[in-house]
DUF6699 domain-containing protein (Mycena alexandri), 225 residues
Amino acid sequence: MPSRHVRFSSVNKIYSLPPPPLLSRAVSSSASSLGPLTPPPLPYMGFAVPTPQMSKGPFSNASGMNRRAHNLLALSTNPILRYNVSQHPSTISTHHSGVAPAAFLEPAIYPPQQAITLVTPHLPWSIQVSAVNGRYVTVGDMLLTVHRTLQMNSTPAEFNMLRTEQLMRRVSRAYTQRCERLRGQRGYAEEKRGGIKRVDFLMGYTSFQGIAPTADPDVWTLSIS
């Protein structure tokens, strides 16, 4: 692909931690209407993703281990949270009643940990999540860190990890479509100048489906659709 069609920027914006989102009720949909759980994995080089271990219930449990994700984050075909990871966590909605903003301050996983690593076959890097409160990673920490990481500018080296011209075109198209959605709105020109971001590597698959533990106690698999 000619390089003149690809924009990169070395400037990344850092956003401060917002208050927990004020949840709105979303229209409920059946699990069958959500389509496949995740998009096809991409052929990145040198990045092996552990296999997630998923239970049939609302929690994700590792076999033989008492590890699970918070209900708001548990891997499911019909997750409690309606979250487009390309948008700020303040836009989260839910189809469940009784989800209080205070839940976003609760531990993201059990047993609680000060740091966890998220991996996904759809990105060539891992996402490191640290506890803002210094004690344990919260639900809000995880959601905001995912958003922050995906909003970072991509580098030419990361773009080259796509390996094929077809994938490069798809990521470039995702960048163009992301910018076009802002046309006529404040920030459109700045977003376009910013170039390709990591979120564009998801190629439009941005619905949060949850996290699940792996055999590594510090590593969890992030699923999107």
Observations:
- The two ends are 27 Å apart (CA to CA).
- Residues 18-224 form one domain.
- Confidence is low (pLDDT under 50) at residues 13-20, 27-40, 43-48, 53-64.
- The chain has one domain: 18-224.
